[in-house]
Amino acid sequence: TFRHFIETYVDDIRYGFRKYSRDDNFEVRQGPKAKGAITVQYPDEKIAVPERFRFVPFLVVEDHDHPERPDHIWCTSCGICAKVCPPQCIWIVRGQDPNTGRPVPEPQAFFIDIDICMNCGYCAEFCPFDAIKMDHDYELASYDRTSNHIFDKDRLSKPLSYWKTIAPTTAYEEMEARGGWDHPDVIKEKKKQARAAAKAAKAGSAPAAKKAAPAKKQLSPEEAEKAKAERLAKREAALARKRAREAQEKQDGE
């Protein structure tokens, strides 16, 4: 627009030759508050991309120095990302246990065709395990489009610390939603173990069981027969009272 054109020259007059002599001026002019058209001497100069920038996805893996699961991939090969992908550029081969042949929550192979990928971010948005994220690396051009542009699991895998670096705000928000920096399944298992430990501790601190009731006195045959006769007499007396009450109610009704 004409306003954009005018702001370009006003900004040039304001900075003058200082925009080439000081690095901080360059950062300001390339920042979000800059006005007017901007010319960058790429690739010597590069504009920092915003945190929400989306490019080819990558798979999150644990850091190499993780105490429990170093370099363990977060992906569980659930296949949701492949299902929601609009251009269908994601292929997943689910891993299997070599002994039982049953599926395991880890992909054996994972491929993304970056020539087809439209960088929409649906895969990262719908992933229930925060295992796939949108990258900021946009310099992916090559002369071989047949193999270099089909990224496999090794090329897609990047540590969690990398995600914290390029998107610190988003990573922190996701951490708060999960309840920790670990994989959601790991956090769930830790909470389960904590509940079990608390339950066991509560059971251990409960008062001792009540003392057993004293055993009943053993009756002799004569005493047992007498007690039985008393019970029968009480039952007959109760039946007699019931019949008398019913007869009285019948007379009152007539």
Give an overview in words.
The chain is an alpha+beta fold and about 250 residues long. It folds into 2 domains: about 1-50, no CATH class; about 55-190, Alpha-Beta Plaits (2-Layer Sandwich). Helices cover about 45% and strands about 10% of the residues. It has 10 helices and 6 strands; from the N terminus they run αααβαββαββαβαααα. The strands form 2 sheets. A 3-stranded mixed β-sheet has the order 4-1-6. About 15% of the residues are buried.
What's the average pLDDT? 85
Number of domains: 2
> Helix-strand pattern, N to C?
HHHEHEEHEEHEHHHH
Number of helices: 10
C-alpha Rg (nearest Å): 38 Å
Can you summarize the main beta sheet?
A: 3 strands, mixed
| Total beta strands | 6
The parts where pLDDT drops under 50 for at least 5 residues are none
Task: Determine the structural class based on helices, strands and strand pairing.
Answer: alpha+beta
The gist of it:
The chain has 254 residues and is of the alpha+beta class.
Which keywords apply here?
3-stranded mixed β-sheet, 254 residues, Alpha-Beta Plaits, 2 domains, alpha+beta, 44% helix
Element layout with pairings:
Blueprint lengths: L1 H14 L2 H4 L1 H7 L27 E5 L18 H5 L5 E7 L6 E11 L8 H5 L5 E3 L15 E2 L1 H4 E3 H7 L1 H11 L5 H21 L16 H33 L1
Parallel strand pairs: 1-6
Antiparallel strand pairs: 1-4, 2-3, 3-5
Helix pairs in contact: 7-8
